[in-house]
Amino acid sequence: MNKETALWIYQKMNEIRYFEDEVHRTFGKGLIPGFVHLYAGEEAVATGVMALLENDDYITSTHRGHGHAIAKGCDINGMMAEIMGKKDGLGGGKGGSMHVADVDKGMLGANGIVGGGFGLAAGAALSIKTKGLDNVAVCFFGDGASNEGTFHEGLNLASILDLPVIFVCENNQFGEGTPFRYASASETVAERAPAYNMPGIRVDGMDVEAVYNATKEAIERAKAGQGPTLIECDTYRQYGHFEGDEQKYKTEDDPNRDRDPIPEFREKAIKNGWMTGKEADKIEQEAKKTIEEAVAFAEASPLPDEETLYTDIFA
Amino acid sequence: MNKETALWIYQKMNEIRYFEDEVHRTFGKGLIPGFVHLYAGEEAVATGVMALLENDDYITSTHRGHGHAIAKGCDINGMMAEIMGKKDGLGGGKGGSMHVADVDKGMLGANGIVGGGFGLAAGAALSIKTKGLDNVAVCFFGDGASNEGTFHEGLNLASILDLPVIFVCENNQFGEGTPFRYASASETVAERAPAYNMPGIRVDGMDVEAVYNATKEAIERAKAGQGPTLIECDTYRQYGHFEGDEQKYKTEDDPNRDRDPIPEFREKAIKNGWMTGKEADKIEQEAKKTIEEAVAFAEASPLPDEETLYTDIFA
Amino acid sequence: MTNRNITFMTAINEAMAQAMRKDENVILIGTDVAGGAEVDHLVHDDGRYDDAFGGVFGLSKGLVTEFGRERVIDTPIAEHGYFSAAVGAAATGLRPIAELMFNDFVGFALDPILNQGAKMRYMFGGKAKIPLTVRTVHGAGAGAAAQHSQTLYGMFGAIPGVKVVVPSNPYDAKGLMLAAIEEDNLVVFSEDKMLYGMKGDVPEDYYTIEIGKANVVRSGEELTIVAIGKMVQVAEEVANILAKDDISTEVIDLRTVAPWDQETVLESVKKTGRLIVIDESNPHNNTATDIASVVADQAFDYLDGPIKTVCAPNTPVPFATNLEQAYIPNAAKVLKVAEELIVDLKKEPMI
Amino acid sequence: MTNRNITFMTAINEAMAQAMRKDENVILIGTDVAGGAEVDHLVHDDGRYDDAFGGVFGLSKGLVTEFGRERVIDTPIAEHGYFSAAVGAAATGLRPIAELMFNDFVGFALDPILNQGAKMRYMFGGKAKIPLTVRTVHGAGAGAAAQHSQTLYGMFGAIPGVKVVVPSNPYDAKGLMLAAIEEDNLVVFSEDKMLYGMKGDVPEDYYTIEIGKANVVRSGEELTIVAIGKMVQVAEEVANILAKDDISTEVIDLRTVAPWDQETVLESVKKTGRLIVIDESNPHNNTATDIASVVADQAFDYLDGPIKTVCAPNTPVPFATNLEQAYIPNAAKVLKVAEELIVDLKKEPMI
Ligand SMILES: Cc1ncc(C[n+]2csc(CCOP(=O)(O)OP(=O)(O)O)c2C)c(N)n1
Ligand SMILES: Cc1ncc(C[n+]2csc(CCOP(=O)(O)OP(=O)(O)O)c2C)c(N)n1
Ligand SMILES: [Mg+2]
Ligand SMILES: [Mg+2]
After folding, report:
1. Can you give the residue range of the structural domain that contains B130?
2. Between C38, C50, C323, which is nearest A306 by CB?
3. Ligand 1: does its nearest atom lie under 6 Å from the Cβ of C206?
4. Domain D215-342: which CATH class?
5. Fewer CB within 10 Å: C terminus or N terminus of chain A?
6. Is residue A308 part of a domain?
7. Do C315 and D122 touch (CB under 8 A)?
8. How big is the CA angle at B147 (ends B141 and B153), to the nearest 5 degrees?
9. Which CATH superfamily is domain C7-203 in?
10. Integer Cα distance of A228 and A222 in angstroms
11. Could you report the per-residue pLDDT of D161-218, keeping only the tens digit for each?
């Protein structure tokens, strides 16, 4: 990883965190309808992967998609407005938190359907392969999603067709209030990879560099026509499953409970000479400002015009 | 295996084979509507497993279900009549080949839906477990079905709940005209078992004894509360995927192509002293007669009464 | 029999608890119906469990504490798998209540309903019964957007072999849930999430409400409004407004959408000659069109005007609050179509 | 433009081939759409492939030979997976034709249609297009029993964002398939398996038939019969029989069941005053009820009698030949309901 990358990562990590903290507050004030799932705590995964992706690479995301969207380059003002259901939202206010998307940025959508992304990502990779492009598709998914049949189908299909896709599991130990250790017969998600004849790698998902390095290798394999890779990132969500969750299932012993990937990366990046403390401070301040501006933008944006209820059904 | 078991097995193998050969002929004569998938060649699996099951054990079956039904003790006359769509069929002629069933015999149905049985069997095992019974459920499925997401979901669920269920794969190398080696990223089905923290055993599915022994162990585990087992039986279907299939995909090199489990078992059983040649001859003749009688029964049975179109929707 | 003022949610919880007390074969299975499986601090000293969620809306809270994890079963997120298991369990002697957290997830659970649970009895010539209750949640209004707000009971209702119940208030919710669990058939029990907080008088005792029978919640002579679930409130609101204009409206709460009560609806329309059906489903191939179709056939000669259906538009459910409100059928929309029907009954225009 | 007498199956095959020649982004994906993947003896010396199945009915035979395995993609039996992939591919620049071998398997492929393909454009505020054609097969009559004979286009038609096409003859099949592939939207193309052998004149050239427009296949003045797919033949048979009694029947082949052509149907009913809809779907919440509902609203004043729908009964499809035949709508059943409508038009009773 070089300096430029590290600075980009640190910027995106901070943008995500400030974004999510802000959404948390705004939700608390009753300004956001519906279900909101926050990504705070898992920033190392989105940024470690996305640091290696181009605009034309594709990602599929989850219900917990804000972090992926920010890291993939989606417009932050448009995201905030979308989450508040405003006209200037990325989807004109019609999608909301669970459907933040920007196909032109390669972001194929947050997805309210757990396990909805495996096949979509394989399909994006099929486009890449069929058109002979030098890109990859990345599927983000949770530990809970790994028990959906679509995991099995998506990984098997991608493997037999040697599709350039990377399956990135964000194992935050819980699917809603159900621990992974209960819901999954396997101890890790990565150990399921051999069933699909693909490498399965488990990395410290609180450490951006570990995520970055594993992704780098996976991209090389994918682009060399060697097919998909499964990367499991051990991580932790700071907030509840969704806003309003009491989190009665969390325990003192949860690994990663007391870790935070952002200060961890700040320290490492400074130590490795990728970033100075001053640069870090500046990034933090700028990120904070970016989010403040996004909130102002979103709040100022009007509600969508009522006739848009009826548009965008068919192309 | 003892003499009694061996004789039972040899009888059921022959009944199945004569049954299927007869259905093949009858279909050729145009007397059977719809899709018919024959079990001939795979008799060692159904009989090797069913030799160990009681009436109150459950099985779920597949589109290729005649063999399972006969071995589980379904009435053969009723089966033949069902397949011909007659009033005296097991399902009153309303189900046909793909839906032969007899819940009282623990046969939860042939199933036209590939991958439909994994969860059903887990559910039957859940009944057994919840009621504290000393029984098991067996799910038969094909190599092709192992790529359905329901495989993943069914095996994982059964494993985490320690359900008394045995998943028996009949790997006949093809799903319709698509070779398993193409469709599955894993080389065997059994090697997927570790992903569900259960034993995965691969046996010679042309050898009844191998199937029998593996099943015996699996039943012991299940009844001891140690959860499910996956058994993959390497086998081969003698006929096409369904009646009418040209079988252009079969090759000279297909393993098991030139094997037949019935003479193999006859030879072994005689050698091991489980059966005399005379007993074998007699069983063969009787089986032939049983099937001839079944055909006569089915042909004599009238069509269902037209008002039965409207019955059996709700209990 | 004590009546308590309790919520729709509590009424359903109570029904499930009473059914589970009455019959040990009744189990509840679904994602996070308890929550917190294998979390040590949620296990009491006496071996009983606390739940972490008790269902994503908290509807099944407390059930795991009373009935234990053997009968209140948290599943992996694997709807097809556990719905198949529920069907298999039902075919072999249990009486499962299986929860589909949002009806929108039907794409992960349809085959066990469509091809297994609904058809086994028929295909097997009557030799199976499937006492399975599918609890699920529909409806817009919570800002849950396109994949968590659909109204899909019409899809289930189109399947032969499936009964579909949609309660409109706490009293009905309890009685219909108990009836559903008593059924030896696959019953989809579809709850509008916007009704969860609704309060009403509910007897403490065990009671059932007949499945397949509609409820005439208001008698009238000039106009029939058939409504489903949450839409019953809209129908009553409309009836009150029309009453000011001396128009007498009969309001029918359908209660069961499959098989719906043709007798009650036809009788009413034969009396009033005018029909509006309110259904939050998307407008095509839904329960409203089904009712319209049957009435246009069987009661044609009694009709004094066109049959009106008021449904959601043919769009996904939008997220933005104003768009979502515009999506849901409401009194204004119903009054607008009512205009055309009642024009000859009225003295002066109303809206 | 040469016309050849070819089968319904060949017409669809030809359409797919012409679309694939015209646009290299068109691919075909499904279980055994070729068959025989990785079977050495099916590979020619020149690297081209023979198929082993070419679709389970042989409909896509030859396509892998011309277009190769990169564009004619055999899948594992994993419908949810490859349908999601088809949606993902469509969203990123391909124009997939994805085959659902039997529409009955919808329980394994519904989410990619219901929640992804049909909704992405809307949820993303117009920032996606999904040029996906879903080919599938419906209909009873082949003895394929309850899980392989259903008629489910009505289920797809209820979903906002999905267009549904049901061709009734080889000419339409080709033109509608080419139109479906040209669409930038998710189109379900549902083929009645009983029509596969039907022959008809089909131009060799590339042509499209407008999606959303019905086809008036016979003009008439006194009775409108709207029919779908295979049922168009039943409608024509009925029209011929009624003609002997001097009753003039208009037959409308719906062609597109979602969005169906309200204009053509309403215009016809306004002229004839009498309507029968024939639809092999189970009777509730289907296209027939939808049409009845719209007509009962929009053309009420023009109606001279009740609206009749003739559908399959509310049962699974039975296996036995006699029961299956009794299940499928036929001319006798249509004539029976026609009686009631035309009683005032006739001189003497007909059946
Ligand atoms: C098909 C489907 N089933 C269930 C849900 C409800 N649900 C939303 S998020 C969630 C938990 C997902 O857990 P995981 O995949 O680990 O992601 P995390 O929330 O931990 O990021 C569940 C069950 C859903 N949205 N879609
Ligand atoms: C859900 C579903 N998808 C596809 C099919 C069509 N189909 C019927 S049998 C079959 C092949 C099954 O292969 P396998 O599981 O290996 O069983 P085998 O036929 O070899 O015994 C297929 C694809 C089906 N019936 N159900
Ligand atoms: Mg998780
Ligand atoms: Mg096979």
Report:
1. 3-297
2. C323
3. no
4. alpha beta
5. C
6. no
7. yes
8. 80
9. Thiamin diphosphate (ThDP)-binding fold, Pyr/PP domains (3.40.50.970)
10. 6
11. 999 999 999 999 999 999 999 999 999 999 999 999 999 999 999 999 999 999 999 9
